[in-house]
Q: What sequence folds into this?
């Protein structure tokens, strides 16, 4: 590539994992990229489809397994684009859903680098979906509240958890589950509120666990719930909500079984 040409950065949503859940726009940009900056989550298999001369930078972990700090990621994007490269910043899910995409856009704009954002299939919707859970459902759930489980729960989140007509979707919530459940119960949310935990959604080893707010911590500990997982709280998470339990049992235990 001509070094006098200005490079650019595209923040590309990669979806929850499988390559065929990426958009065509994402795929086209990847195939034209000079540099691909990747995360731990998302469609990591794309590496196998990139030309050997493409520089792949994994910012999901360093040799010591520490993630690269955000300001260093920003600097990598800006530096490569300044060198005239077409940079794809590939992210799991959607870049603007707990993806720090906004910060990367700001860094590029501030540095005068052309930048664009390509939407992705967010795990907040697609991972429950993989377990047959619709985040909204007519006459059952008319609103969705998406939260970062690592943050303290706000009044809005507690209100969502306590409202039968709202689905609460918790990302990054596995480690904080005991605190989240305790705070919700303490705030008066019913112990019988349905909860589903969907681990590794859209992967072959996907696992769905149905429980209740009162039992979730014990159950998660018993089965050893691990990241990445999406936690769904609300009526839509109730087993057999879409189909009777009998049918669900017959549909087997495959990736998208209900
Ligand atoms: N931008 C991403 C979210 C990044 S936060 C998106 O839109 O999907 C990372 C969190 O996403 C994880 O902690 C987990 O809660 C969720 N996640 C991402 N991929 C997942 C998957 N395949 N299965 C389960 N959870 C996933």
A:
């Amino acid at each position: 590539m001509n070094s006098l040409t200005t490079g650019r950065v595209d923040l590309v949503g990669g979806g929850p994992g499988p390559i065929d859940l990426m958009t065509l726009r994402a795929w086209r940009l990847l195939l034209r990229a000079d540099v691909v900056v990747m995360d731990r989550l998302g469609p990591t298999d794309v590496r196998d489809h990139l030309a050997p001369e493409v520089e792949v930078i994994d910012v999901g972990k360093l040799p010591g397994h520490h993630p690269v700090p955000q300001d260093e990621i920003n600097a990598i994007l800006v530096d490569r684009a300044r060198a005239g490269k077409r940079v794809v910043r590939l992210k799991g899910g959607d870049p603007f859903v707990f993806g720090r995409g906004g910060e990367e856009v700001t860094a590029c704009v501030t540095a005068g680098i052309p930048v664009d954002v390509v939407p992705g299939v967010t795990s907040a919707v697609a991972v429950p979906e993989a377990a047959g859970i619709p985040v909204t459902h007519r006459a059952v759930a008319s609103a969705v509240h998406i939260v970062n489980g690592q943050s303290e729960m706000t009044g809005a989140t507690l209100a969502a958890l306590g409202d039968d007509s709202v689905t609460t979707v918790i990302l990054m919530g596995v480690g904080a589950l005991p605190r989240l459940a305790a705070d919700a119960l303490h705030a008066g949310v019913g112990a019988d509120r349905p909860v589903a935990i969907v681990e590794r959604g859209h992967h072959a080893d996907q696992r769905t666990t149905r429980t209740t707010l009162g039992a979730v911590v014990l159950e998660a500990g018993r089965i050893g719930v691990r990241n990445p997982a999406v936690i769904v709280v609300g009526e839509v998470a109730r087993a057999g909500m879409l189909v009777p339990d009998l049918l669900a049992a017959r549909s087997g235990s495959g990736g998208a079984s209900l």
Remarks:
- Residues 16-17, 41, 91-94, 97-99, 122-124, 127, 171-172, 198, 200-202, 227-230 surround S-adenosyl-L-homocysteine (CB under 6 Å).
- Residues 8-118 form a domain with the Cobalt-precorrin-4 Transmethylase; domain 1 fold (CATH 3.40.1010.10).
- The helical segments are 24-32, 70-82, 101-110, 123-130, 155-162, 177-186, 216-223, 245-250.
- The beta strands are 8-13, 35-38, 55-58, 86-91, 115-118, 143-148, 166-171, 194-199, 207-212, 229-233.
